Amino acid sequence: MHPATGEDQRLAAEQLWLARDMTQIAANLATVRARIAAACQRAGRDPESVELLPVSKTRPASDVLTAHAAGYRRFGENKVQEAEAKASELAHVADLEWVMIGHLQSNKAKQVARFASEFQALDSLALAAELDRRLQAEGRQLDVLIQVNSSAEDSKFGLPPEETLPFAAALTSFDALRVRGLMTLALPSPVEDQVRACFVRMQQVQALLRDQGVEGQSYDELSMGMSGDFELAIQHGATVVRIGTAIFGQRSYPAVG
Ligand SMILES: *Cc1c(COP(=O)(O)O)cnc(C)c1O
């Protein structure tokens, strides 16, 4: 063995640091998974009926690899540029899928049509038309969730609940979009009843769509619940919970939207 150089020591420290991070992420995933299972049990639901979607926004590709090694292959991102960069950095990982969960401007539709496997924040027909056009050009289809503004005054994105049904009907003109369900961000409130009201509203919109919605569309997916409110969301029928900080730790800069 040659004597350790400063560079060796720096590398060793870096590896230790990385290993510590990896262990933490794996442990957090297991904890969140267990909390999902417990919430499902309380609600009389099958734990397999709720997908844990790790939200990797602001986190490095190495964190995605760690979660992938723990068995996760779909990751939520909210910024197109960041997601595309990670997708190309991790292009060697064959089964990774990128789920766009944030508001999208029409001028980014082209990139999303190229690399995303699902888009959860559809809330305008202009965007739907642009996505459809780009997807047709790529010869692809895209799973979409309709974003609903379940907190009325609080959110600037998402459709008012009462506009969701006519919106879904209008989406039938876009062959490349496969409607799979609904997505929402609940009111970020410490008052549980206010958060619950958002989730209850989503269940009502879902029931209405199932009753009066369009042939060929599915409304089974209900993407709602984040680190702070996912157990309540599960109680009210969430099938996808989008979890960032409870898995990867606090983000160094805020990125909700
Ligand atoms: C960031 C984000 C999340 C995850 O939020 P956490 O509180 O970190 O779990 C979920 N959904 C959307 C749309 C987000 O932007």
- Please list the strands of the largest sheet in the order they lie side by side: 2-3-4-5-6-7
Q: Characterize the biggest β-sheet.
A: 6 strands, parallel
Estimate the mean pLDDT confidence.
94
Name given to the CATH homologous superfamily: Alanine racemase
* CATH topology heading: TIM Barrel
Distance between the first and last residues' Cα: 52 Å
Order of helices and strands: HEHEHEHEHEHEHEHEH
- Overall geometry comes to globular
Secondary structure tally, helices: 9
- Beta-strand percent range: 5-15%
Structural class: alpha/beta
State the name of the first-level CATH class: Alpha Beta
Walk me through this protein's architecture.
The protein has 257 residues and is of the alpha/beta class. It has one domain (7-248): Alanine racemase (TIM Barrel, Alpha-Beta Barrel). 45% of the residues lie in helices and 14% in strands. The strands form two sheets. Strands 2-3-4-5-6-7 form a six-stranded parallel β-sheet. Bound molecules: pyridoxal-5'-phosphate. Residues 55, 57, 78, 101-102, 185, 226-228, 242-246, 255-257 line the site of pyridoxal-5'-phosphate.
